[in-house]
Write a structure and sequence with these properties.
This protein is α/β, with parallel strands linked by helices. Helices cover 41% and strands 19% of the residues. It contains 11 helices and 10 strands. It holds the Pfam family RsmJ.
């Protein structure tokens, strides 16, 4: 694999994914029983945006950099998950330096409770080494393991409650993501009460429509789509937007996700006309 998330860390897609991740975890925290947070493609866990990869791409400038430049009065009007996210980034930077940015495993470690646990997979040897160094939390198990095999081996977890974050590099998972449809179908069969969260890029609308049709055909209920497109669909750029497909979203998450995305959209959009933020049910209960 050639993909390295360091080039893309902190971009608009990371912002969207991480704010909604915080909202999901906080809603899981509303019930007393412990749960498991599973991250199938953990990456390095933390990223230094002052290093060459992030500086070369500059993608963070249109993502987290925009938000940290906002006036405090504007941030105070943001949804709570956005405010929490920005406080998390500020906390990390106070511990490291102002160029650092958190990945989803680090954010997970900040928001699960003492009785909860985490499982993180990462296949690439050098990235796995960084992940183990960056996430030193006794509640977390860090594994150098293929997600397609590893996820099915660890579910359902002993806690019975929990969430799976799936954010692959999309080097093998191309076209309409057939591998991911199969993975979600098999995972749901093993753990029908789990919350499954799939991040995916939006580059070709027709491809996304085919993916959604495949997911509908699985018969899985309670499938929610969250989209943030900072460019119009027909703009010839590398990434027009991104989406989260969420199976079994927690109660009232959909309503709050809509509020969050409508707040983020004007701050992250790349053009005055076009693009969108939307939350909709792909399959109802």
């Amino acid at each position: 694999m050639n993909y390295r998330h360091h080039f893309h860390a902190g971009n608009f897609a990371d912002v969207m994914k991480h704010v909604l991740l915080i909202e999901l975890l906080n809603r899981l925290n509303s019930k007393d029983k412990p749960y498991r947070y599973i991250d199938t493609h953990g990456g390095a866990g933390l990223y230094d945006l002052s290093r060459a990869p992030a500086q070369k791409s500059g993608e963070y400038l249109e993502g987290i950099h925009r938000l940290v430049q906002l006036d405090r009065s504007v941030v105070q009007q943001a949804p709570q998950a956005v405010q929490t996210y920005l406080k998390d980034v500020e906390k990390l930077r106070s511990q490291q330096s102002k160029g650092w940015y958190p990945g989803s495993p680090w954010l997970g470690s900040q928001h699960i409770r003492p009785a909860d646990s985490g499982t993180v997979f990462e296949m690439q040897p050098d990235v796995f080494f960084d992940l183990k160094d960056n996430i030193r939390d006794p509640r977390f198990g860090i594994h150098q393991r293929d997600a397609y095999e590893g996820l099915l081996a660890v579910i359902p977890p002993k806690e019975k409650r929990g969430m799976v974050m799936i954010d692959p590099p999309y080097e093998l998972e191309r076209k309409d993501f057939p591998q991911l449809v199969e993975l979600l179908t098999n995972a749901y069969k093993k753990w029908s009460t789990g919350v499954f969260v799939l991040w995916y890029p939006i580059k070709d609308r027709s491809m996304i429509e085919r993916f959604e049709k495949k997911m509908l055909k699985t018969g899985i209920k309670k499938q929610l789509i969250c989209e943030l497109c900072v460019w119009p669909d027909d703009t010839p750029v590398g990434l027009n937007g991104c989406g989260l497909l969420i199976i079994n979203p927690p109660w009232q998450f959909a309503d709050q996700a809509e509020v969050i995305l409508q707040w983020l959209f004007p701050h992250l959009r790349m053009t005055e006309n076009g693009g969108h933020a939307a939350v909709r049910w792909l399959a109802a209960e």
